[in-house]
Amino acid sequence: MRGAVLYGPRDVRVEERPDPTIIEPTDAIIRLPATCVCGSDLWPYRGIEPISAPTPMGHEYVGVVEEVGSAVKNIKPGQFVVGSFFASDNTCPICQAGYQSRCVHAELMGEIGTQAQFARIPLADGTLVATPDIPPDDLIPSLLAASDVLGAGWFGAVAAEAGPGKTVAVVGDGAVGLLAVLAAKQLGAERIIAMSRHEPRQRLAREFGATDIVTERGDEGVARIKDMTDRLGAHSVVEAVGTQESMMQAIRSTRPGGHVGYVGVSHGVELPGEELFFAEVHLLGGPAPVRRFLPNLIDLIWNRKITPGKVFDLELPLEQAAEGYRAMDERRAIKTLLKC
Ligand SMILES: [Zn+2]
Questions:
Q1: I need a labelling partner for 310 at 20 to 30 A (CA). Which of 93, 130, 141, 316 fits?
Q2: Which domains, ranges and CATH numbers included, belong to the chain?
Q3: Separation of CA 170 and ligand 1 centre (Å)
Q4: What is the pTM of this model?
């Protein structure tokens, strides 16, 4: 099969990789109609997360089940399925509590590399959710978004306790931040402030439900949020970047007693204890337990209540994955879809 492999900083190649096979009896093999590049793939792409050997890339996926292992009971060949970037058994106490991304048997799909024509999905019964039928082509981008960026934005909004009567601020205008705006809207938030300085992303944020745009960042961004909220700060703030600046911007934009949902993959963030102590805010974040939300997200997409696939503003054949990465690295694209 063809698949994307990272050789070093800014060196992505599409090459022949071995077809995946059933290794564990709980595995499934899927054929992907399309795959995509994640903002978090840019960390190794830029060399910020160094790699020691050529590395298959990708952790987002949807597809048709080709084959299942002997212990797979619920997932069947021929079904169209969506799964999360963490495989999970969905039965252990951590999964049962809704934190499938930290399942005691969790396996990171990034180690499998789903920017490819086929993928092996571990713990298929726990990980995969089947759609009601084979989806029409126009739903595939939205279902693919559910695999990670929609689920992550949704978790950020849920962790920030976005809901009726709440003012929600979103730090970060990548796909996850934009979809946190969509999630906040779906969860009934009253006012949704997208923090973005890029005009096309502001437009999409408004389409997804943002009521206000703040272009300032850092302390100036915090001051703007305070100005808009009677000096109190937002009830709910989603952090969708993962840097020191964005995390502090999120915490400082939140009112005492408010909630921060942080879903940007943390890189070098250190929280000052004394400031945290007196901020008196709730903090919840981490790798999103996308599996918790998938049945609801699939239902919303299937019934055309939401169109998260709009975050894909560049579509290329898998063979041109390198250009897909480049466009995102240079912020020419929000998110790249790769047709397999
Ligand atoms: Zn589990």
A1: 130
A2: 2-148+289-339 (3.90.180.10), 150-285 (3.40.50.720)
A3: 30
A4: 0.96
